[in-house]
Structures
1.
Amino acid sequence: MIELLESVPPGVIYLVVGLIIGLESVGIPLPGEIMLVSAGVAASQGIVNPIVLGIVAASGAIIGDSIGYAVGKRYGRNLLGWLGRKLPKHFGPKPVRQAERMFDRWGAWAVFGGRFVALLRILAGPLAGILGMQYRKFLIANATGGIAWAGTVTTLAYVFGLVAGQWFHRFSWIALLVTVVIGWLIVRVVRRRAEKADEAEEQEQTDSDAKVP
């Protein structure tokens, strides 16, 4: 990869890195992190400027996530409606409502931290749009996460070389496993609270109907 980058003009490298990271953030499974690590190593050899590379990578991540958010917000409800008809137990109105409550409470951390986690890096933007996360809140988490991720990956790749790519690969999948476990626990807690809230609301409605002469 490095030999290939040596034969490519710096402007093309910046464009390709930004484009791949942006498309990955929209929701397309592309090797954005691998590309950034390779470009970071190239920066350590003077092929590209590491500061410009970090800015391009962060911009691609932020713009891509924002597009993914817009796509999820525009078309996600139709997808959820279709899934709700096919799999009502998992995507019906009640589980979707519970997911919205969970994402409203923890969504900013999911967007920020998801930038460092395999798969979540691809899904965070569209998922935030589908579940109706407020865009201002999303943008703050998206921007800070994108800048932190791009800066960290570029810096470590610049300092430590390709070995940094192995670190990030291992960390991403370990982080994904931890996130899945924590997410499952959160879903269980939120679901129980939502069920209790729904039961209380139904009981209140029943009592109100009973008082009507």
2.
Amino acid sequence: MEEKTKAYKNRGELVFETLKREILDLELKPGQMISENEICERFGVSRTPVREAVRRLQEQGFVISVPYSGTQVTLLNLNNIKQMIYMRVAVETMVMRDFVDIATPLWMEEVRYMIRKQQALIQEKGFEPEQFYRMDAEMHAIWFRATDKMKLWDMIQAQQLHYTRFRMLDFVTETDFTRIIREHTELFELLEKKDIAGLERSLKEHLYYSMKRMKHQIDVEYKDYFEQEE
């Protein structure tokens, strides 16, 4: 723990960053209660840095204070997630249009390389879904970087409270990673052909697929992870 602590300004920041990552990676589940005593014991710190970390998590919406119960990880908001997917489809479609116009062989090779890395990863025994999630994000970021639109990509990635956790749940419950790679390969081939109409259709299906695939999980298995819609 001492070596980890050195990487952060203070113990409060270490606790904050660790809990935030665990919430985003679904190690701490939506709706789960967090005990201050357990955190103190786990990190070997006093209540002061723990309370500071919890306060920052509350300010950013990752946890809420429940009277007479303690601190709870916030639930996912399905309407927020649907709007984020809608926005991402709209923005990324435009970015990919721009990418088609400037995609050099070198940029295309970056996309091809990321797909190969994904193919290699799923051959690894016991690979973690979050590893695939990071590679997936790296690949989509390529056309934003190539078109000098990284500010937009960062804004999309910043929607972590609901959207990032939903994407992580998507990968945690995915049983066919080869399907995702096939879709990525299709995007690559459409980029090569400069098929704008095909790209827009394929990207929309790709980004919305998880909502369709997970309908049963959202309604039944992981119902407790989501705020109940009015």
3.
Amino acid sequence: MKYTIDDFARLIDHTNLHADASNEDMKKLCDEAKKYHFKMVAINQVQSKFCSEQLKNTDIDTGAAIAFPLGQQTIESKVFDTEDAIKNGANEIDYVINITELKNKNYAYIKEEMKQMVNICHKYHVPCKVIFENCYLTKEEIKKLAEIAKEIKPDFIKTSTGFGPSGAKVEDVKLMKSIVGDNVKVKAAGGIRNSDDFLAMVRAGADRIGCSAGVKIIEALKQRMQDDNVTTIEINR
């Protein structure tokens, strides 16, 4: 598949999830998203209203992070926070699974949590992304989660929050994609800071990239295409 600069930009969830982010920081994030035509801004739930107002009358989404970054909230709390975020303007949701219950092998809990989160998102026609936080998981746990997702069908499964000890890995993206196939998309996030890493994740099967380095990445890709005198880059997946 051949990608233009805009195609690449539309893969990016432009991210600022820092605890000390100000309204000025959020405005900058949204302004950059508009300038580069990113797909979404990824922000903490409490900033849903502010960012959705900044992005009004654009095709750029406001993505609220739920139970971020630990996932240690009840299902009821996650569902409440999701609906609250949506009512305040969020039109994409990324939530962190309850890793404790996964470690307990309480797969019924994980399945019920995912089902309720997907249902509340889809009630409002909002995409739901499930954050695995792979740095804490074994390969078998990643596989099991992906199998549950294949059954429940969230819109995306996601590698990481970016706040754990490590972020996205190419082998994890490949593993996740190999299980869900075309039923669910994969989002790579965490530690993707340059154009080589970005392209590697797309080649591995990621359909969305969460990163705070989106401007730097797009500018590097523009320069690469200019140097090669091309308007597209072909990616074989």
